[in-house]
Amino acid sequence: MRQFVLAALLTLFSIPALAAPLNVAVSVLPQKYFVEAIGGDHVHVQVMVRPGFEPATYDPTPRQLTELSRDRLYFAIGVPFERTWLPRFRSANPNMRIVETQHGIQRSPMIPGHEDDAAAGGLDPHIWLSPTLVRIQAMNIMNALVKADPAHAGDYRRGYERFALTINRVDDAILKTLASADLKQNRFMVFHPAFGYFAAAYGLKQIPIEAEGKEPSPQQLAALIHTARQNGIKVVFVEPQFSQKAARTIADALGGRVVPIDPLAEDWPKGMEAIATALHAVLTH
Q1: φ, ψ for residue 260 (rounded to 5)?
Q2: Which of 110, 117, 133, 276 is nearest to 204 (CA)?
Q3: Strand partners, 214
Q4: How high is the mean pLDDT in each 10-residue block of the chain (285 residues)?
Q5: Which residues pair with 43 in a beta bridge?
Q6: Measured between alpha carbons, how far is 90 from 82 in angstroms, rounded to an integer?
């Protein structure tokens, strides 16, 4: 019996201890999908902007700030709340490395024609809505994980390769959805101008209702209704994170309807394909 117990103890202590996952934080839900796709079981991801909230105005909770003190990496993406909070995150956790996943991406202004808005933070942060730009973000994520945790470098590289194939499949599925149909038009109306990169990737153009975080004035509202009528638009897309008041006003004036469309879905492939399906249903009628 004593020999059996001794053998069991020797076996137990010969098993290498499982390494604790790398604690990291991201700004928005789609990034969680990216990091987990690449990092797998080696990462534990905290999302700062919780479901249902808007990245432009989000304030982290005390619990989130406490959890952030344990994080090794923060994957930034350029959303507005980061301008206020990233310096505070650095102060609260000097050992946490900030990784700018938008590195290498030339971002567009939120409003076309306002190319000089960079200093004022007027660049479009929604780079996760273009598969081409997600490929760049994924490479930045992989490189940061390899640097922070070189022991699992091979796993991170394989995770990146698998995720790259997923990106290709998503891109192909969207192209198939949009290109296989006889599109009656290429313009669509949205409340918040979040879909510029998506539109550019697939030959479309968004017409936003909101500008610079402000709802339209009565004069601007009348101009938008006129534009929509000229383009035969009867559907206004609105994100679940925003008020539907202005969108419903325009839709009612057009005898149309408001359709929800979510750019912040955690399941990035399904979210992207849902956007394409919603647009297909509108642009072919």
Answers
A1: -70, 145
A2: 276
A3: 211
A4: 46 52 97 98 96 88 92 96 94 95 93 51 89 98 98 98 98 90 80 93 91 79 90 89 83 90 95 94 81
A5: 22
A6: 11
**∠178-104-163 over CA atoms, to 5°?**
55
Parallel, antiparallel, or unpaired for β 187-190 and 235-238?
parallel
Distance CA 177, CA 175 (A): 5
C-alpha span between 92 and 49 (Å, rounded) = 18
- Bridge partners of 208? 190
Computed on alpha carbons and rounded to an integer, the radius of gyration of the chain in Å comes to 22
Residue of 25, 242, 213 whose CA lies nearest to 121 = 213
Distance CA 44, CA 134 (A): 20
Alpha-helix runs per DSSP H in the chain: 2-14, 29-39, 62-68, 81-92, 131-148, 153-179, 196-201, 218-230, 245-254, 268-283
Q: Report the DSSP pairing between strands 187-190 and 205-208.
A: parallel
- The DSSP symbol for 34 reads H
pLDDT at 19: 73
Distance of alpha carbon 182 from alpha carbon 186, whole angstroms: 11
Buried-exposed string 96-129: b where 16+ CB fall within 10 A, e elsewhere: bebbbbbeebebbbbeeeeeebeeeebbbbbbbb
Dihedrals φ, ψ of 6, to 5°? -60, -45
Q: What is the pTM of this model?
A: 0.88
